[in-house]
């Protein structure tokens, strides 16, 4: 549940706080909790109470957040979305990248 005193939910990656809407934050939370496993379109649309088209829009904006931190949001055809660690030299030196969500849970 999102506390009533919280203005906007956020996702924190490498100490950088990314403030976003509740549904995007819930989507990000689902991806982070899946630990690289696909999250089905059905789970996403049900949890967000939205359509596949809207999920695609959310995915586009989440890509812009995750990619600078070395993560790709991958669409698994017919399955859903998952986060994948990029293997570029720039990010290879980072052994552990702390990820966490704050205030993303809710109804």
Describe this structure in words.
The chain has helices spanning 22-33, 41-48, 52-66, 89-92, and strands spanning 10-13, 16-19, 39-40, 71-76, 80-85, 99-102. With 107 residues, the chain is of the alpha+beta class. Helix 1 (22-33) packs across helix 3. The radius of gyration is 14 Å and the shape is globular. The termini are close together.
Considering the chains and any ligands shown, give keywords for the structure.
single chain; 107 residues; alpha+beta; 3-stranded antiparallel β-sheet; 4 helices; globular; disordered N terminus
Structure summary:
The protein has 107 residues and is α+β, with helices and mostly antiparallel strands. The chain has helices at residues 22-33, 41-48, 52-66, 89-92; strands spanning 10-13, 16-19, 39-40, 71-76, 80-85, 99-102.
Order of helices and strands: EEHEHHEEHE
The biggest beta sheet reads:
3 strands, antiparallel
Sheet/helix structural class: alpha+beta
Please state the overall shape, judged from the principal axes of the Cα atoms.
globular
Fold topology:
Blueprint (H helix, E strand, L loop, with lengths): L9 E4 L2 E4 L2 H12 L5 E2 H8 L3 H15 L4 E6 L3 E6 L3 H4 L6 E4 L5
